Every structure is written in C-alpha cells, then in structure tokens.
Amino acid sequence: MTTTHHDVLIIGGGAAGLSAATTLARSLRDVLVVDAGEPRNAPAHSAHNLLGREGVNPLELLTAGRAEAESYGARILQDRAVSVRREDGGFAVELGSANTATARRLLLATGLVDELPDVPGLREHWGRRVLHCPYCHGWEVRGRKIGVLATTPMAMHQALLFRQLSDRVTVLLHQLPGFEPEEAAQLEAIGVRTVPGRVVGVESLDAAGSVQGTAPDAGPGTGAAAEAGLGVVLEDGTRVDVDALAVGPRMVARAELYEQLGGTLSEQPMGRFIETGPMGRTPLEGVWAAGNANDLSAMVSVAGGAGTMAAAAINADLAEEDARAAAARAAAV
C-alpha cells in the first residue's frame, strides 16, 4: 500500500476531468486523475457538436485526451475512488487498489448515471437506437421513424425537437394519461401521432421487420444494420415499429464522495446533481465539480469547457493560498 501526495486530485477521467488535468498541468500543478473506466457515453459510436472532432468515437477521444494531459505531466491512474476524508487541510482518498492519494484540492468530474425506464430491451439499445438527446443523435435519425417514450411531461419537449428532424414522429404515452389540451392540439397540428398504452418491451428488428431479439445493433446510419429498427410492444400486444426511440432517463450524479464529505445533492426535473458556483466551486471548502456531475445536460464540449474553468479557479485558489502562506512565513522571521 502506498500514499501519493498531489496539488489536485481529479476523480473522473472523462471530458471534464481530462480538460481540467491538462489545464492544471500546464500551470505546473501536480495532478492525479483517478478514473474507473466507466464513461457514460461508452455505448455510443460517436460524439457530436465537438468543434474540430465532429463524429469522433468517444473512446478514441478519451485516449487522445489522456495522452494530452500526460504530455504536460498529469498522471492518470486506472482505479476506483472508494472513500474520501479531510486530512491535514486537504483530502485523503482511499482507492480500490488499497492505496491512498492525498491532495490540497479535490475536483469531482464523476459524471452521472442514466436511470432508464423499466422496459425490457431498452438498455440493450441505449446509446444506439434508444436515444435521449436530439443534438447528440438527431442528425443520424433525420427523416426516419422516431418514437418518443413518454415517462414525464418532458416528452412534449422531446417530441417538438425530434419533429424538427422528421415528419414521422410518434409519442408512445406509456406512463402518461395524455397531454394537456393545448399541447395535444400543437402535436396534432404538426403531425405528431400519439399512441396510448403502456410499453412492455422493445424488440430488435431486421431489415424485413422480423423480430431479432434484443441484441445490440450498430445504430442508425452505421452500415448494413441501418435499415433495421425497433419494435415497441404495447400491453395489448400491438407493436409500433420505429427506427429510433427517444427516452428521457432520470439522471443522477455520481456523488458518493461528495456526500461522504457532507455535501447534499440538489434536485431538478431531470434528476439529481451537485450544485456549484459559475466556475465549479461547491459549498464544501476545497471541493469543485465539473461536467455532468453538476450539469446534467452538458454535452462533451460543454463538459470539457467546464473542466477547464474549474481548473483555472482551482489554480487561482492554490496560488492565493501559497501567497498568503509565504507572507506569513516572511512575517514570522
């Protein structure tokens, strides 16, 4: 068992964590990134709305990001942060490997967990044909048959955005009794169909529309499998065939360490998150958060920018602390 000491400990090696690590390392800070290797977007084939890297494979992007951070001296450790405590004015994090890392400041770039509706077959297609964000995946299903699985009133929002991309949008009411009269009139006016009834399963279809089970496919627009689709099965046995199914998951920040330090998560309609100031500072002294942990809607580009801003704030905070300490030492002589 070993203990390492650092200026900043970053938990999470996604876009936010790696951007922060690069920024801090370029300011000559001793940085350790602890990453468990469970990126939220691992099932997706590509990341979008990312200037200069449009359509890049998410895992390829992380590989490049790790290399960039390491080129400036940041250390990336494949491990899991199990627990955290305050120690000697900073933090001590116990790792899954039984080692310990200590740091003066802590940045939580831990991301979030998508809690999907309890519908058989849904998770198997998550990030491929089961989508949640029209900006992340919409172009790939433009003009196709798109279903919207209604689990909350946010389904109206999804229906409007996906209708911009296709004139073949169907809302499967599932857990909703229906929409408010004004909303229902709007959907009818723009040609969005609504189908009542609880959804009990999602099946994979081949190009001929035959059921293939629930095995993951390549996703829309990715070759031969592009002509396949999904069969959304209702409680009465009827099936609605779509090319892609939009769903609004409940998003919950990975915040076990934050809560161990006494932090409390905030609630919003999409889920639970770590509330921060504009540059990622949390109410807990010495703790910052960036990326999906504090912004549930953040795309890769936004998460990366948030990591950079949090890193700049942490670096300034450390510089101010160092200056105060130097002045105190000088005054004591």
Automatic annotation (TrEMBL):
Q: Which SUPFAM superfamilies match?
A: FAD/NAD(P)-binding domain (SSF51905)
The protein here is known as Thioredoxin reductase
The FAD/NAD(P)-binding domain sits at 6-303
Under PANTHER family, the record lists: THIOREDOXIN REDUCTASE 1-RELATED-RELATED (PTHR48105)
Q: Which residues form a coiled coil?
A: none
InterPro entries membership: FAD/NAD-bd_sf, FAD/NAD-binding_dom, Ferredoxin-NADP_redctase_2
> Is the keyword Oxidoreductase assigned to this protein?
yes
Catalysis performed (reactions): [thioredoxin]-dithiol + NADP(+) = [thioredoxin]-disulfide + NADPH + H(+)
Keywords from the named record: Flavoprotein, Oxidoreductase
Source organism, top-level taxon = Bacteria
**What GO molecular functions are on record for this protein?**
thioredoxin-disulfide reductase (NADPH) activity
